[in-house]
Amino acid sequence: MKHTGDMQAMVLEKAGGPLIYRQVPIPQPSDYQVLIKIIACGICRTDLHILDGELDKPKLPLIPGHEIIGTVVKTGSTVTELSSGQLVGVPWLGHTCGRCKFCLLGMENLCDAPLFTGYTIDGGYSEYTVADARFCFILDKRYNQPASAPLLCAGLIGFRSYSMIAPSAKNVGFYGFGAAAHILIQVAIAQGKQVFAFTRDGDERAQRFAKTMGAHWVGGSYDVPPEVLDAAIIFAAAGELIPKALKDVDKGGQVICGGIHMSNVPEFPYNLLWGERSVKSVANLTRQDGLNFFSILKNIEVLTQTKVFRLFEANEAINQFRSGQISGAAVLVMNDM
Fold first, then answer.
1. Three-state SS at 115
2. How many CB atoms are located within 10 Å of the residue 8 CB?
3. Geometric angle at alpha carbon 76, from 71 and 78, rounded to 5°
4. Any residues with CB less than 8 A from the CB of 29 and at least 6 apart, and which?
5. How many Å is the Cα radius of gyration of the chain?
6. Cα 155 to Cα 143: distance, rounded to the nearest angstrom
7. Which of 10, 96, 183, 216 has the fewest C-beta atoms lying within 10 Å of its C-beta?
8. Which DSSP category does 263 fall into?
9. pTM of model > 0.85
10. pLDDT tens-digit series, residues 112-161
11. Alpha helices in 66-199 (DSSP H)
12. Is there a contact between 132 and 94 (Cβ–Cβ < 8 Å)?
């Protein structure tokens, strides 16, 4: 079957502007790529940073989106990893050089010349996309549903953040309770941890959601938790939460910053960091992260809470996501579903 002609896509033409729903040519895979018919694509906080110009080096015009679930319909001439008909997931990290010191050290998430899905290469707010076959994840058929899309970034980047805390950590703080946190809390609870959920002050909706997901305690960002924390993961893009989290963690505690963009970190006294506390950022992901994550999900049932929108409703979905009207994740499904 030929997959040529045009497709529908949501296109960003300039930062700060709305996405434009229009027809564009169906892309054709290069030798090492596959053409994927998209089932669903999740909306990520990173997408907002791109749309708003906070991540300021996108290709333009751009089709955003990097939480992609789809089916391979065509393969490039050198592709051996995938075949037509396979269900795959496409994540944020879309390509690495394989030659820089970071790639050679097994740290491909820090590659000097990477390409990112939905940022420097076109992504999943469309009916079809092409992707480097080596960076796609083969998925079990149980993931053939829109609710699986958030696993490809909210899940993966959240899991990389979670993997950086010490295995011995018992009390773990999640600062910001949205798409990533609602996935990771399920893993954390299954592994015997107590999650302390911090939301925007006064955000009763998010606090109720965190409680229903099994949080041990919920409160506002600046509330003092009833127990000292062993580690904290900051999912919110608010730099001022770093000193707050340092106040909340015990000696030797870790504060992990799970976002690609964060507002400026305010000055804070050294005594907050003293006691061998640490602050660490999370950059992108590796393919091994994905393999580890989906391996863990074989033994831990993780259910995502999603609100589904049609592709042409992307701007409305983004507005609702931005304003905190969505508990969990927002997902775009293609028009033929």
1. strand
2. 17
3. 125
4. 35, 74, 75, 76, 79, 130
5. 20
6. 13
7. 216
8. P
9. yes
10. 999 999 999 999 999 999 999 999 999 999 999 999 999 999 999 999 99
11. 101-104, 154-163, 179-190
12. yes
